Amino acid sequence: GGALEELVQRAESLDRLTSGLKKVLEPGLASHLKGANLRPDGQLVLVAESPAWAARLRFEADKLMAAAQDGGAKVNSCKVIVAKD
Length: 85
Hints:
53% of the residues lie in helices and 21% in strands. The protein is of the alpha+beta class. The longest helix has 22 residues, at 2-23.
């Protein structure tokens, strides 16, 4: 219970968010979306595999924000970052 349970629920929620966002992208692009986070201030943060894929995801920001909102998230902005290995 407690903090561990909250952490597990948060991880599952972010996994569902990422999976839902991948569904609205073409498969070739979806595979380069490594994860998503929704910050308390409403910022959707997308994690891309490389700078090139980050640029492609930025072009899809409006579509991804709309998809997150359709899933019940309160989103007001989108940021794409690159995963560091």
